[in-house]
Design goal:
By secondary structure, the chain is mainly α. It has helices at residues 7-14, 18-44, 48-64, 70-79, 90-110. The radius of gyration is 14 Å and the shape is elongated.
């Protein structure tokens, strides 16, 4: 089964502290889903500044959790600095949504959240 996040990354950061791992996962699940929805809404409304802010805010967490969505997040950030319409960024958004939703489900299961 493919893992959508890297538990090894988290264990290394937490130095094996299971309580800290639990807190990291819980915080991620509290903060990232609303940010993802806000970024989706910003892109839908072609609010590039807001889309950039949410993409940029999520980026370090996505990296810390080893989630394979960094290229797409970076593409969303780059799109926000162009004059292109939202059609050009929608595939990247879709990838981020799919991958993060899988990661959310795995984290909930692995940490019983």
């Amino acid at each position: 089964m493919t893992k959508y996040y890297a538990k090894e990354n988290l264990s290394e950061i937490a130095d094996g502290d299971q309580d800290f791992l639990q807190i990291l996962a819980q915080t991620f699940l509290e903060e990232i889903p609303p940010d993802l929805r806000s970024m989706e809404e910003a892109i839908e409304n072609e609010n590039k500044e807001l889309a950039y802010q949410f993409a940029h805010k999520m980026k370090p967490n996505i990296e810390m959790f080893g989630i394979d969505a960094l290229k797409d997040i970076t593409s969303i950030e780059a799109w926000s600095k162009t004059s292109k319409n939202k059609i050009s960024v929608l595939p990247h958004l879709e990838n981020v949504v799919v991958v993060l939703n899988h990661a959310f489900a795995e984290l909930k299961e692995d940490f019983q959240l």
